[in-house]
Structures are given as C-alpha cells and as structure tokens.
Amino acid sequence: MKVLVPVKRVVDANVKVRVNADNTDVDTANLKMAINPFCEIAVEEAVRLKEAGVVSEIVVVTVGPKAAQEQLRTAMALGADRGIHIQTEEALVPLSIAKLLNAVQKKEQAQLIILGKQTIDGDNNQTGQMLSALANMPQATFASEIKVDGDSLAVTREVDGGLQNVTISLPAVVTVDLRLNEPRYAKLPNIMKAKRKPLETLSIDDLGVSLKLHQTVLKVTPPAERKAGIMVASVAELADKLKNEAKVI
Amino acid sequence: MAILVLAEHDNASLKLDTAKVVACGQAIGGDVDVLIAGHECAAVVDAAKQLAGVRHVLVAQSVQYANGFADNVAQLIVDLAGDYEHILAAATSQGKDTLPRVSALLDVAQLSEVVEVVSADTFVRPIYAGNALATIQSHDAKKVLTVRTSAFDAVANDGAADVVAIDKVFDSVTQFVSQSLSKSERPELGAASVVVSGGRGLGSSENFVILEKLADKLGGALGASRAAVDAGFVSNDLQVGQTGKIVAPDLYIAVGISGAIQHLAGMKDSKVIVAINKDPEAPIFQIADYGLEADLFEAVPELTDLL
Ligand SMILES: Cc1cc2nc3c(=O)[nH]c(=O)nc-3n(C[C@H](O)[C@H](O)[C@H](O)COP(=O)(O)OP(=O)(O)OC[C@H]3O[C@@H](n4cnc5c(N)ncnc54)[C@H](O)[C@@H]3O)c2cc1C
Questions:
Q1: Mean pLDDT score of chain B, rounded to an integer?
Q2: A-chain residue closest to B272, CA distance
Q3: Contact B272/A230, CB-based, under 8 Å?
Q4: What is the pLDDT of residue A227?
Q5: Helix H segments across A109-187?
Q6: What residues does CATH 3.40.50.1220 cover in chain B?
Q7: SS3 for A57?
Q8: Domains by residue range for chain A, with CATH
Q9: DSSP assignment letter at A44
Q10: Interface confidence: ipTM more than 0.95
C-alpha cells in the first residue's frame, strides 16, 4: 500500500526564537531550519512499515517556500521514495494546508496518511484532523503505536488520562506523538541517493484549489518576562521562603 | 450572538476545564450554551447546569457518544452550529481531536490554545512554544477556538441552566478497544494548585516515590518532563510541556529537570516556581523564583520533612 507523509520545514527545536523589532512576526532570518520533529517521526514510521513489508511506496509532501525542498530531501534520505513540493511563499493556515493536502491525496489515493500531531512553530495541532475531515477518512490522533492488520489499523493514542486503544478502517489519517518511535539518522550514501529521487514541484493553481484569507496577524509580542528569582542556600531557607515570603504553603 | 462550549467529561464527572472555557465564552460576550455529548452521564448534566451564566445545557446521549470520539461529535457540533457564532472547547486531547474537524467542515480556520480574548473576533495565542504571543483577528463568520484552560479562571457553580435534549445521533467510525487510564488519588495536573515535577535526574521510577511524598504533603499533583516519561519512569499523562500538558499552579516545583524550552512552555506561567537541581548552570534556574543547587535525593526528603 501507498503511504502519504506530509512534512513541514520549521525552525530547529533547539533554537529559541525571538520576536522581531516591529512586532509583526518572529525573526527567523539566519536561524537553523529543520524538518519538524513530529514529521520526522511520521516519516520514520512509514519507513518502518515499508521495511516490514506492509508499505510499498512512501510519498512525502510539503507546502512551503523553495527552501522546503531540503526537508523533502531529508525525508527521502530517511527512506521516502519520492517527494511533492507545493511551492508557496505565503504562510498558510492549517485549513489551507489541509485543502492542498486533500487535493494531493485525491491524485495519490494513499491508503494511509501519517503526519505529525503538531508543528513546533505554530503549535496548532489541526492539520491532520482537518485533512481527515475533508478527505472523509477515519482519524486516529496522537498515536504512540500503530499496527496495520489487513484493512484495519490498530492505534494506541496518548490521551489526557493515559492511553486509549482504537481501531479504524483504512484508508485513514494518523497523527503521531513523540513516543511512536525514535527516528534514525540518515546515512551518507542515503543522503546522496535522495538527491536523485523524484521530486515534483506544483503550484497552488496546479492543484486547482482556491484558498481564502481567514485571518490577519495583528501583532506578535514577546511573553511577559518573569522577574528574576533568587538562589537559596539551604533546604531550610527554601521552606522558610515558601511559607513566609511567597506564602504558597 | 451565541457561543457553544463542548463539555469535557468522562460520563461520570464534568471536568473543571469546562468551567474555564465557559469563562472564556463570557469574556467574548453573549449567551453561552454547553453541549454534552455522552452516554449515561446524568451527573455531568447536573454539574453543567450549575455553571454560572450558562443559558442552555444541550445534552446528546447515545452509546455512540460514549467515548467522545472526534468524528461523530464533530458532526453533531456542525449540525448545531447554525445557531452559534463561536464554538469553543478546552485544548485537551478531546478538544484538539475534535474541533479541527468542526472547523474544516464549516470551512473556517481554527484558533488553537487561546489565552486571551481581545474582542469577539480577535484573540491571543502562544506560538513557538510560548516564546511569542500572536494577536490574531479572525475574518470567518464563525470562530472555532480551543482554549488554554490554565489562562482562565473557572466560573462559579451557582447557575441554574435549563436542559435541552438533542436527539440527533451520528454514528462513530472509530472502534473503541480498551484504555489504560492512570488512577491516582492526587488532584489532576490541570486542576492542582501545587505541582511537583520530576525529570531525568530522578533516575528511575522507584525514585519518583520521594516526589510523591512531597506532592502528597502539599496536596499537589505529580508532573514530569518528557525525558522522564520517555525513560518510562512515569506514564505519558504526566508530561508537562509544549507537547504535553500546560499548567499554571500557584506553586510548581521542578526537581531534576534542566529546563528545556519545551518544558518551560508548559509551566512558565506558574505563580511561584521552585527548581532543585545539582547543576548551577541549569536553565531552569533562570525562570525559578527560588533555586536550590543541591542533590535532589537529599534535598527533597528534607524539604518534605520541613513542610
Ligand atoms: C518536538 C519536541 C517536543 C518536546 N516536548 C516536550 C515536552 O512537552 N515536555 C518536556 O519536558 N520536554 C519536551 N521535549 C524535550 C526537551 O527538549 C528536553 O529534552 C526535556 O525536557 C529534558 O528533560 P529533563 O530536564 O528531565 O532531562 P535533562 O535535560 O537530562 O535534565 C536532567 C537534569 O537533572 C539534573 N540532575 C541529575 N541528577 C540530579 C540529582 N541527583 N540532583 C539534582 N539534579 C539532578 C541535571 O543537572 C539536569 O539538569 C521536547 C522536545 C522536542 C524536540
């Protein structure tokens, strides 16, 4: 079966971003960029399913600027077979991205779509669920384990109270959580091989999708700074401060 | 203008989150109705009726809604959406699962993890693990929001809303198999006024016992860093952070936690933060009100005795 894995280019998880001087956005100039960590876990899971003989083809797709091709190459170095790049310089809301992915899915007819539960830039946690609704496919979010069994998929979900096991029928959309797997590092020969894998570039118009303007970002501001705290010298001092200064106990 | 709030519950009790989302609804302004989709959930209905300022409690009861699955609950909300301009849910696993589907079916964008209401169409939400706050104006006719409950105070319980039965039943395509929910006598993370969290520094699940003793002494909840959960010291539902739970208790005690951006994202709005760490350079000290450089295995039992 074919798996579709949408991925996103984001600021690397180890970088602390700052708001720009005119409070219109965060300043991402010259920051290290990477594939969103959750997307990487999604790619890894698809590769493992292929290694297990369950999956025959892995297609990665991204919506983003020209440079996002780097992340498609990264995914292909990890084991994806081909890439689709929907090129746009605009920052789109998750609903618009889900519409574009749905248009890709209409062509690709993948049996399974695996994607990260959220990206670490917008922290939206929306795209997979929206895609599932638009494509009218069952969804299982926040997966920490998935098993394909014929036409059905068993998923362990991380929910607020603990873990929940569900089954859904394929084709389906799964969003992945952190503990699904630990992604491998791409090996140099695979990085070289990935450069020759097919990569198709499309525009939004090519997909025949018309998008709407849903919202305007009025401003982006830094969060309130916490006032500097103190170091205490002993456990006794800590207990005293908590009781008599902070009065929290 | 009316506002629909999806209730957060487990058929047995109504979660405090709902009272906080209702508060967000009241900040937007307008009649607030609460929707309960569930099964054999009379106690939940009774609790929702008492939420201050709520107009109607809409109750859709069916075995199909027993597990609160996103697919059919979203259909139910879309079916009711005609009467509402705002649709709200807590940014819990159920709210996050369900509302994006509602948005997509209504063809409107969603605003996730709203922390502040500026006006009926403008909201503030954190981005980049809370390192920035975006003020966003929605142009959609209907606004669909998940609400970060740690940013709102719960409404009181002195209301007397009426109950409206909703008969429409949509079938779920998700099959429930089983669940393993953590059982604990301690308060829930999101509702606790004290949270004691442990990180990789605890070293093992057995060692978490020393934190449990401290938490119990303070009547607090237990939390953890991702590293502690990944290592199997504690279960996933205790993870605090960008991708776990967001908490803002009166007192947050971080023990053996270094203070990665992703962890801070989940607790930096706590009123008082205490950090106990043996590494003086640990970034957690930069946001702690009280920092103690010490070996946790000595300091935590001593602190427990002193309190
Ligand atoms: C996409 C993504 C999402 C993430 N989401 C989250 C999230 O939601 N929540 C989260 O917490 N993390 C999250 N992380 C992980 C985060 O980046 C850190 O790796 C993690 O928080 C580290 O956990 P820790 O502080 O327990 O471990 P470490 O960073 O290893 O810190 C352990 C600390 O314990 C101290 N210590 C050790 N022994 C002792 C002792 N005997 N006495 C006192 N102190 C001691 C050490 O000095 C050290 O500071 C995420 C990462 C990514 C990439």
A1: 97
A2: A246
A3: no
A4: 86
A5: 127-135
A6: 189-306
A7: strand
A8: 2-244 (3.40.50.620)
A9: H
A10: yes
The CA-based diameter of chain A, rounded to the nearest angstrom, is: 68
B71 pocket-lining for ligand 1 (C-beta < 6 Å): no
Residues 6+ apart with CB under 8 A from B101: A129, A130, A132, A133, A139, B70, B71, B74
Q: How many angstroms does the Cα of residue A182 sit away from the middle of ligand 1?
A: 17
Calculate how close chain B gets to A192, using CA atoms only, in Å: 32
Q: At what angle do helices B93-106 and B70-80 cross, to 10 degrees?
A: 50
Q: Under a CB-based contact definition with an 8 Å cutoff, are residues A53 and A47 in contact?
A: no
B278 CB near ligand 1 (under 6 Å): yes
Residues of chain B with Cβ-Cβ distance to A133 below 8 Å are: 74, 100-101, 104-105
Fold assignment, B189-306 = Rossmann fold (3.40.50)
B205 — phi, psi (to 5°)? -75, -30
H/E element, A75: helix A69-78
Interface probe, candidates A235, A243, A245, chain B, greatest B C-beta count within 10 A? A235
What digits encode the pLDDT tens for the residues A189-227? 999 999 999 999 999 999 999 999 999 999 999 999 888
Amino acid at site A137: M
- Answer yes or no: are the C-beta atoms of B290 and A241 closer than 8 Å: yes
Sequential DSSP letters for A25-39? SEE-TT--EEE-HHH
Token reading at B270:
């706590």
pTM score, two decimals? 0.97
Token output for A36: 């969103």
CATH of domain B2-165: 3.40.50.620
- Average pLDDT on A69-74 reads 98
Interface test with A, best of B76, B123, B139, B290 (most A CBs within 10 A): B290
- Across the range A116-123, mean pLDDT stands at 98
- In the numeric block, which tokens belong to residue A118? 């959220």
